[in-house]
Design a protein that fits this description.
It is a single chain. The strands form seven sheets. A seven-stranded mixed β-sheet has the order 16-17-15-14-20-21-22. Strands 3-2-1-5-13 form a five-stranded mixed β-sheet, with helices on both faces. Strands 4-7 form a two-stranded antiparallel sheet. The chain has helices spanning 50-68, 109-119, 121-128, 136-146, 148-153, 160-169, 176-181, 194-200, 222-228, 242-249, 308-318, 325-332, 374-398, 417-427, 438-450, 456-459, 476-492; strands at residues 2-8, 13-19, 25-31, 47-48, 75-82, 88-90, 100-101, 156-158, 173-174, 185-186, 191-192, 209-210, 236-241, 258-262, 266-272, 284-287, 298-304, 343-347, 361-365, 405-409, 430-434, 465-469. It is α/β, with parallel strands linked by helices and 493 residues long.
């Protein structure tokens, strides 16, 4: 008996098949094998074609089934993780009306800010715990204002994972957790944020039906099952945004627990039982996947858009693919902590929430042509990413999230010893790395939604720590000085 998880990212769609009884991953695959393109028709725009997501999901699904030599009837449930805050709009015939406006797109900032100012800070933050900022609701407001012909045809708007599930089942549904990601959930009244919908001029009929996070949410249609290489009627029983799902994949479900990722973007995500918020919305509070009215659970999220994408840009563009990531890491370690006075601001992937939605771009500061070489630049880039993450973590601490141990999957930037050491020594936190990823988390979530697992303990059998990185007290002062140097560059930018 297997559980199948999909992780719809902006770089690829990954699928993972796990043995439901042992929790062991038996096969995984991702498509495309080179990064999916992000289209930027104007500065600050970021779009992807949802039909490509579906094509890649089908390829990944068929690959894992073939690799595991699994029969379609062996898969008992499907879970979906997806890139947060994106917008997909469809008409009554389920035709996609325009490319998806994805998470790192900045165009909606003025629309979210206008809503915040018109509705008032007290009402907005009290009910939404966030400014409408650059989230899904504000993105739809941009479409309404700038593409009225498109908006007039919209029957439903969805998050990326809602679209993927709808392609599978024919049912357009979402979750309360998902709506909270789009700042479309009223935390005080435990319902969609009607006052914000009214302000934007959205009819309530545009909202998908709301289903629980862990529950049957539809069954594979015959045509979809044939494309995926699965059995008709297989239930979709879980969906969540990538960061709440990453936390779930690391068994981060209770207050005080912390999860981190460092892929294209970098995120630190802490669970709290208090509905608290940052007044400037530099970090954001959402419903966590483990939330219930009886036992409230909130996810406090800080994001740095420019994380792994900076490292990949350096490799692909500046170095023309002449070095591997391991070689880049080895070169970077030839430079001292603090990169000999060179600082990198990694903000080159859209407006950054921790900077109150400013779009500074990526830049190096303090470059001395007679002193600095490639090792300094490579180290400054990795340190700059960690310094930006820690800048956000300090804001999280201000809203009551404690930092003790950070859990992460052993992947992406977490594969770099330099990156891990910098994060551990600057934060003072031990970092626990696990043998998991978002697709595995989605598969385990599917098992919870199916009822195969009775609790989180059962669901996370087979989850093991692969490495622990402890902070080195002797090195912490040097990293602190590097961070202060970086803060100085940020203040001048």
């Amino acid at each position: 008996m297997y559980l199948l998880g999909f992780d719809l990212g902006s770089s690829s769609v990954k699928a993972c098949l796990i043995d439901a009884d042992t929790g062991v991953a038996v096969a995984s695959a991702f498509y495309p094998e080179t990064e999916m393109a992000i289209e930027a028709p104007q500065s600050g725009f970021a779009e992807q074609d949802p039909n490509r997501w579906w094509d890649n999901a089908c390829l990944a699904s068929r690959k894992v089934m073939q690799s595991a030599n699994a029969h379609p009837s062996d898969v008992k449930a499907i879970g979906i993780s997806y890139q947060m805050h994106g917008l997909v709009v469809v008409d009554k015939q389920f035709n996609v009306l325009r490319p998806s406006i994805i998470w790192c797109d900045s165009r909606a900032v003025p629309y979210g800010n206008a809503a915040f100012n018109a509705l008032g800070a007290e009402r907005t933050m009290h009910h939404l715990l966030n400014s409408p900022g650059n989230f899904t609701g504000a993105k739809l407001a941009w479409v309404k204002a700038n593409e009225p012909d498109v908006f007039a045809q919209v029957d439903k708007f969805m998050l990326p994972g809602d679209y993927l599930a709808a392609r599978m089942t024919g049912d357009i549904v979402t979750t309360a957790s998902g709506l909270s990601e789009g700042t479309l959930w009223d935390f005080q009244n435990e319902q969609p944020a009607e006052f914000l919908m009214d302000y934007f001029g959205f009819d309530q009929s545009l909202l998908p039906q709301i289903k629980p996070t862990f529950a049957p949410q539809g069954e594979l249609s015959g045509p979809a099952a044939a494309e995926l290489g699965l059995a008709t009627g297989t239930p979709v029983t879980y969906r969540a945004g990538d960061q709440p799902n990453n936390a779930l994949s690391l068994n981060v479900v209770e207050p005080g627990q912390i999860a981190a990722t460092a892929g294209t973007s970098g995120v630190v995500y802490g669970v709290s039982d208090q509905a608290r918020y940052d007044a400037q919305s530099r970090v954001n509070t959402f419903l966590h996947v483990s939330h219930t009215p009886e036992a409230p659970r909130y996810g406090v999220l800080m994001c740095v858009n420019g994380t792994g994408i900076l490292n990949s840009w350096l490799r692909n563009t500046m170095l023309q693919n002449s070095l591997s990531y391991n070689q880049m890491n080895e070169l970077a370690q030839q430079s001292p902590v603090g990169s000999d006075g060179l600082s990198c601001l990694p903000f080159g992937n859209g407006a950054e929430r921790i900077l109150e939605n400013r779009d500074l771009g990526a830049s190096f500061h303090g470059l001395q042509l007679n002193r600095h070489g490639l090792p300094h630049m490579l180290r400054a880039a990795q340190e700059g990413i960690v310094f930006a993450l820690y800048y956000g973590m300090e804001i999280m601490m201000q809203v009551g999230v404690g930092l003790r141990t950070i859990r992460a999957g052993e992947a992406n930037m977490m594969l770099s010893p330099l990156f891990r050491d910098t994060l551990a020594n600057l934060s003072g936190c031990a970092i626990e790395l696990y043998n998991t990823d978002g697709a595995q988390g989605a598969a385990r979530g599917a098992g919870l939604g199916l009822g195969h697992y009775k609790n989180y303990s059962e669901a996370f059998a087979g989850l093991n720590v692969t490495k622990t990185v402890e902070p080195d007290a002797r090195a912490q002062q040097a990293y602190r000085e590097g961070y202060e140097q970086w803060l100085s560059a940020l203040k001048k930018a």
